[in-house]
Amino acid sequence: MLSFCQISNPFFQLIILIRHGESEGNCDKSVNRYVPNHKVVLTLRGHQQAKDAGLKLESMLNEDDSVLFYTSPYKRTRQTLDGLISGISNSGIPYKVHEEPRMREQDFGNFQSTAEEMEMIWKERAHYGHFFYRIPYGESAADVYDRCAGFNETLFRQFQSDKFPSVLVLVTHGIWARVFLMKWYRWTYEEFESLKNVGHCQFLVMEKNPETERYKFLTKLAKWDDDDDEDEKEYREEMKDEVLKNSNSYTDMNFSSSDLSKDSQRSQREKERKLKELFKKTLDKC
């Protein structure tokens, strides 16, 4: 999936969106019944994913680069940011950090209900449509789109400054990252709903073409109609090749398995199989 958007600043070269590392809420949904969503922390594996992502980020940067981090104010994204900074702290590359509330997770209605009640909500959402369905007392993805649009306008104004860093890193959440890309590249809501969630600490890379001054999206996103039995090694290599063949100045990227580990893929795919089965069942009842 390759798309374009034009930015005139000659120094600004790269945008990277990074989903937070594995959190306690990702492993145990009951956590969301008694811990506020913004206070959910990373697991030990999530902390390691963040540290590995920091080393990966450091390997992607050039000596003359500068970095601006924008992060969601949630605890798990702050902790992920700490891991990213630890990876580049010894490189001497200058960086700045801004916290942005508009980058927060989709609001699921404060403390979540029982497992049975939440299952009914997910079934209803699958039937209604993931983009427009508003969680009771919470938000829809369309609501996230609205605040993402405001954030984009803020970024576009900043892009005009020659002092803007060469690399922008957005540390955020899975749905926010997909909505950001949807807004930036003007994808339809059908295209948004066709996408699976991104992996923990997976890099979504947008690189500037110096000739066209447009940003090309280099990362292949997994879709619901992808083959579920696709070999894991082949999947990682396919993603690697997709970025490398389209990359101009960042062809020395280090594609470690930190964000595409086998355990992470197995866990994510098991969740996706269950969601896909649920989605198909609700469609059959329409």
UniProtKB/TrEMBL annotation:
GO molecular function, one term: catalytic activity
Catalytic site positions: 20 (tele-phosphohistidine intermediate), 105 (proton donor/acceptor)
Residue ranges of the region described as Disordered: 228-272
Biased composition (Polar residues): 245-255
Residue ranges, compositional bias (Basic and acidic residues): 233-244, 260-272
Binding site for substrate: 19-26, 76
Residues in coiled coil: none
Domain of life, source organism: Eukaryota
PANTHER family: BROAD-RANGE ACID PHOSPHATASE DET1 (PTHR46192)
Name of the protein in question: Phosphoglycerate mutase-like protein
Organism whose genome encodes this protein: Wickerhamomyces anomalus (strain ATCC 58044 / CBS 1984 / NCYC 433 / NRRL Y-366-8)
Source organism phylogeny: Eukaryota, Fungi, Dikarya, Ascomycota, Saccharomycotina
